Amino acid sequence: MSVDTDTVKRVARLSRIALADGEAEKMTDELNTILGFVEQLNEVDIEGVEPMTSVVATDMRKRVDGVTDGSKAGDIVANAPVTEDNFFMVPKVVE
Amino acid sequence: MTELTALTIAEARDKLLAKEISSVDMTEAYLSAIDAANAALNTYVEITPDNARKWAQISDEKIAKGEAGALEGIPVGIKDLFGTEGVRTQACSHILDGFKPRYESTVTQNLWDDGAVMLGKLNMDEFAMGSSNETSYDGNVVNPWRADGSDAALVPGGSSGGSASAVAAQLCAAATATDTGGSIRQPAALTGTVGIKPTNGRWSRWGIVAFASSLDHAGPITRDVRDAAIMLKSMASVDPKDTTSVDRPVPNYEAALEGSVKGMKIGIPKEYRIDGMPEEIETLWQQGIDWYRDAGAEIVDISLPHTKYALPAYYIVAPAEASSNLARYDGVRYGLRVQGDDIVDMYEKTRAAGFGDEVKRRIMIGTYVLSAGYYDAYYLRAQKVRTLIKQDFEKAYADGVDAILTPATPSPAFAIGDEEMAADPVKMYLNDVFTVTVNMAGLPGISVPAGLSANGLPMGLQLIGRAFDEETLFKASMVIERAAGRFAPKAWW
Fold first, then answer.
1. Which residues contact B383 (CB under 8 A, 6 or more apart)?
2. What is the nearest CA distance from B181 to chain A, expressed in angstroms?
3. Do B377 and A20 touch (CB under 8 A)?
4. Which residue of chain B is at minimal alpha-carbon distance from A20?
5. Quick check: is B476 in a domain?
């Protein structure tokens, strides 16, 4: 399978990455090189094989569903580019 | 370089406890060494001298009071991927511009609790994506090793290139590092240092910038095997903040070093003899086999039939996980923001400006293989292949193999700006051909320096162990270290 430039532009949109002029064309070739490389997986017989979901066989540890941390609004917004009264500020979303 | 920076952790620990040296003096010696070297090697992206001096002072006081921790007063460097409270943590990416976490990663907190002293943050490939440390927003790292008779700059490997280079050049006693496809073991091999990637779940992920969560591993890079055992003991822990950290006691790895390998079964996988492998890597591997045979181990030929599919499967799974993990960088909560016409435009411009080319490529591949209509063909298939890779190892271990010996990398260090690798991303990916299988299976792997190439560059051998059997790896690694000796670059910087 390979991708065309329109697909690359669509994937860039899904990835929320703006592409400069000419960048989609360059990226199409690079992505096709990688997709060509992974193509060899089609040789493998995967009939009846379970997909890996956890690399180490282990039971998930559970904890009591209680509050263990919090009251850190100042810490949470401390690194944000724009904040007001401990809220993250973004461009207007709803008219 | 001074005598104080030449000491291993074990040597420094003994001298500190005997009060022959002080942590303050040793820390000062490292800070001077960093000052003298950093312009040439670019290993540190942030140096924290004031903190280092203060912590060293506290360590000396604790030693005087007889309250020394396992790493008391030992100056270490921290890969820029580990969250360090109040200190720059950017994964060497522009998108994390100015990020100073309000928390400390569990792994680094474990080191500080044991008395280690932080010298600063170390350079790396952006978001740990790379094998040459050339994708860093902070510029490439230079390998302290040069080929005989040449002053051409070589890569230190990646992504933990800053960690490996700093340890080799004696700019820290040891460093933290991470390994998603080979990022500890490959740079260790290229710089003549020891690097271990422990079993998945042996340490806490909490506070470490995520790349591909099912493949990411934290571990140390050190000057010798004993130091790796000391560092891993401190770094590893079970952590209530990370449910994937496994609740089993951390053994005293140092105690495992003295054991014999007599009767141990060392597996040699035939699939690791790849086309185009340089003869000196082949020779090095054979040398390693001979060392084990001489030490009384039994050499067994084994087969890991799905080896060649590990790298292509990795380049589906890792980008898929990365595209999800890196979705959080949106210009809202931390780091860089580029203004846009509306919120989507702001996201797109921020991410376009903040991510480098390799990171963008991987996010795009990951988004594509997870998108509607392609999930089964790519991602699900890759996860099934991953099961087969893991089963290959399980079968070898079920047949009685204790550890598997392979080369660590397909070549010694290569030049910065290698044109073939720049033109073809897959060529760069092939650097991880021997290491990536181990991440796919979640097993522990260690790279140990084993010799020099014809032109005087270090090369490493890799040992792969059973899950949670790092002790066997440490014990077996001593065979290589005793036979090969240790390697240090000649200072030219």
1. A51, A52, A53, B317
2. 14
3. no
4. B352
5. no
Span B25-72, pLDDT tens digits = 999 999 999 999 999 999 999 999 999 999 999 999 999 999 999 999
Buried b (16+ CB within 10 A) or exposed e, B231-243: bbbbbbbbbeebb
Q: Which of B23, B132, B136, B159 is catalytic?
A: B159
- Residue in A2, A8, A55 to test binding to B, most B beta-carbons within 10 Å: A55
Q: Which residue is listed with tokens 């204790």?
A: B402
Contact (CB<8Å) A30/B425: yes
In a domain, B342, yes or no: no
ipTM for the complex shown = 0.95
**pLDDT score, position B103:** 97
3-state class of B47 per DSSP?
strand
* Nearest chain B alpha carbon to A64: B240
Reported in sequence order, the residue ranges of B48-179 that DSSP labels E, i.e. its strands, are: 75-79, 117-122, 174-179
Between strands A83-84 and A87-88, the pairing is antiparallel
Residue B1 has pLDDT above 50, yes or no: no
CB B325 within 8 A of CB B213: yes
The one catalytic residue in B22, B59, B79, B411 is B79
SS3 B404: strand
Look at A41 and B361 and tell me if their CB atoms are within 8 Å.
no
What is the average pLDDT score of chain B?
96
| Number of cross-chain residue pairs from A and B with Cβ atoms under 8 Å apart | 172
Across the interface, whether the CB atoms of B98 and A79 are under 8 A apart is answered: yes
B308 counts as catalytic: no
Q: Which amino acid is at B104?
A: E
Q: Structural domain tally of chain B? A: 1
Tokens standing for A74?
Answer: 């100042």
Per-residue pLDDT, B2: 56
What's the CATH number of domain A5-41, 3.40.1000, 1.10.1060, 1.20.1740, 1.10.20? 1.10.20
Can you tell me the distance from the alpha carbon of B183 to that of B179, in angstroms, rounded to the nearest whole number?
4
Domain at B214, CATH number: 3.90.1300.10
Three-state DSSP at B474 gives: helix
Angle among Cα B188, B192, B193 to the nearest 5 degrees reads: 50
pLDDT in tens, B271-302: 999 888 889 999 999 999 999 999 999 999 99
Average pLDDT of the residues in A54-73: 87
Which domain covers residue B144, as residue numbers? 9-263
CA distance readout (Å), B392 to A14, B395, B440: 36, 5, 11
Does the residue B428 lie in any domain?
A: no
pTM: 0.97
